[in-house]
Amino acid sequence: MSDWQSTTCMRCAVGCGHRQRPTADGDSLGEVTGDPSHPATGGAKCQRGVSETLAPDGKRITDPLIRRGGTLQPTDWETALGLVTSRFIEALGNNNGNIAVLGSGQQTNEAAYALGKLARGGFGTPYYDSNTTLCMASAVSAYFQSFGSDAPPPTYDDIPKADTHLIWGANPATAHPVVYRWITDSVADDGQLIVVDPVETATADDADTHVRPDPGTDLALARAVLAAVIDAGDVDTKFIESQTTGYEELVDSLPTLDTAAETAGVDTDTIETIADGLTDDTLLYWGMGVNQSIQGTATARALIDLCLVTGNIGPGSGPFSLTGQANSMGNRVCSSKGTWPGHRAFDDETARKAVAEAWDVPLSRLPETTGPGFVGIVDAIARGESEVCWTVATNPAAGMPDAGQVTDVLEEVFLVAQDAFYSETVACADVVLPAATWGETEGTATNMERRVSRVRQAVDPPGAARQDLDIIAAIGNRVETGLFAETPLDPGRVFDELTALTAGTTADLSGLSYDRLTEELAVRWPAPTADSHGGYRYHEGGDRWQFETESGRARFSAATHSGVPEPLDAAYPLVLTTGRCAGVYNTGIRNRADDDTVPDARIHPETVGNCLDAFDRSRTVIESRRDSVTVTVAADDSVPPGMVWVPIHNPAANKLTLPAVDPESDEPNLKQCAVTVRAPPRSTDDDDQGTAAASTPALSGDGGLVDR
């Protein structure tokens, strides 16, 4: 076999350093393991990341496909690209918004940058977004509003330093096992673990305190803890007075502890236990249970407020959102989705001029707004505002809320799907462009603590599949001559173009290069020089801080709990929520077999007993106001009474979910909606219906993100 090659796992945003090498014949990956020299993870790995890199089970796409006579049939690249670009040029002849582009946190930095350059600078479309909006947008909005800049302040180095680990609306034991191992090691070393989650998860099983709020009340609970902290006098007055603004408004906006506790369905003693934990150095982690809500931004800001008010905003403490997709962070820095590269403000005229000059495109072509978000783009397509849609490494037909309606929209528009594996979105497409996946791609990725590292190609992609970067450039140059160099592109030169455009910004990558990353393996931004690297954000040492706001101070918030978007009633008396299972990620297109059975649902035995007429042979039909899905039921007291829990990995799950979005972030409310259960039809049709719903050729996830 060849020598080992350093690379980065692309399974989740932990960013584990891997080593890989091909088989003796060079046709496929032969071995993958952890890299002990990697500065972020030191050889740590999870089995899921290794197995999904080495031997994914999903159905690969190896040739371009064009729909003919209602079916997808193989073709050559010239034919596929010719059809795609002719339709794109035709659409652009009507107006710039006639092309909708949906990207992904599974792309490399280089591919995400190129897609944003083409969407914003080549097409000029406002209808461009990444599926990271489906999972991280609320955290991003909260960071910008609180600190003036995106990304969590802490790093992995802070985990062993913390005394209290407060995990809110996340299950890292299942979703981020390597990070969770570090957390449990820290807890074992005289620390404590507090978990906030309505469901008894693998993470909650390890908790010293497990807090179970009513679904959709996280903001009310966070504000109850704030009230308890302030009532107890456990505030860091010096930090508040010297480094923050808005504290008085926060205090004035708070309800009484008893009122907030009643709203959240949590007793005051438990709330005081959380507040007491915050008196020690605390890392406060959160995930999709917070973000995927119409109050996601407000809740994330309230969690940041908890850190600010208690002075937990320095080494060994602070707010630390847990990112799902492997390159969600890089996508936010470089893809021109919500900000221009380097987190330059989208409406900043100086930034816009710099971007237009770097891309050599007319300033007037750059859209004036970031667009309506992932859900809003699909709504715009449904209204006929875009004639064509291009999806890259994402699967909206399975990963978006009200997925049945999304599928209907995608079947009506001219759809180009670029992916490595078959998926529900691919099944809707008019043209399919086969892409390379892990081990077949050159580039970089950025993990959740801001470390940039290399993603390396060990083997060629199968058949005619090409790297994302080259597919994007081939389309771009046909639409806008000279936008990119001739393909195949040199990813290193694309990276250099990207990093130069971030120089002088809050997310400065200009001190990075492929040579440096080859030598050091992973470097945190900001890295403005060839020997600099980022540490704890905003902290300049001792009592010196500098936040990226106009005042240089962190900002408190004062949003109040407004209720859930779809209250329960007599017709829909149960609450649906979704979560992850061990060994699967997103909607599982890399490891879902074609013969998968109907989705499993977990329901409390008491709820099962109250609804016995709705069950037949351990099956029931879950029905929301949008659709219905046949499931197999497991009675499980880890789920609270009145709740139905389904795995997000199954494509049927999002047929039920609600497309309401957070007004600040455009992130959808995927974690709560009203449902009922009814008996399935007593015929073989229900078996066929359930199996079809669960085994469509592939999926995406974290609230809707394709796995590569």
Class of secondary structure makeup: alpha/beta
| DSSP summary: helix tally | 25
For the terminal residues, how far apart are their CA atoms?
Answer: 25 Å
CATH topology value of the largest domain? Rossmann fold
By DSSP, the count of extended strands is 28
Percentage of residues in strands: 15-25%
Question: Outline, from the CA principal axes?
Answer: globular
Q: What is the architecture of the largest domain at the second tier of CATH?
A: 3-Layer(aba) Sandwich
Mean pLDDT rating: 93
The radius of gyration computed from the alpha-carbon positions, rounded to a whole number of angstroms, is: 24 Å
Percent range of helical residues: 25-40%
Largest sheet: 7 strands, mixed
CATH class category of the largest domain:
Alpha Beta
Strand order of the largest sheet: 5-4-16-15-14-6-7
Total domain count: 4
Low-pLDDT residue intervals, each spanning 5 or more residues: 685-708
Annotate the secondary structure layout:
Blueprint: E1 5-8, E2 17-22, E3 29-34, H1 47-54, E4 65-68, E5 71-74, H2 77-92, E6 99-103, H3 109-123, E7 128-130, H4 137-147, E8 164-168, H5 172-175, H6 177-188, E9 192-196, H7 202-205, E10 209-211, H8 218-232, H9 237-243, E11 244-245, H10 247-253, H11 257-264, H12 268-277, E12 282-286, H13 288-291, H14 296-309, E13 318-321, H15 328-334, H16 349-359, H17 373-382, E14 388-392, H18 396-399, H19 403-412, E15 414-419, H20 424-428, E16 431-434, E17 443-446, E18 451-455, H21 468-479, H22 491-501, H23 514-520, E19 522-524, E20 539-541, E21 544-545, E22 554-555, E23 574-579, E24 600-603, H24 605-610, E25 619-623, E26 628-635, E27 643-647, E28 673-678, H25 684-694
Parallel strand pairs: 6-7, 6-14, 8-9, 8-12, 9-10, 11-22, 12-13, 14-15, 15-16, 23-27, 24-26
Antiparallel strand pairs: 1-2, 2-3, 4-5, 4-16, 17-18, 18-19, 20-21, 23-28, 24-27, 25-26, 25-28
Helix pairs in contact: 2-21, 3-21, 3-22, 4-14, 8-11, 8-12, 8-14, 17-19
Domain 4Fe-4S Mo/W bis-MGD-type: 2-57
GO molecular function, one term: oxidoreductase activity
Pfam family, one: Molybdopterin
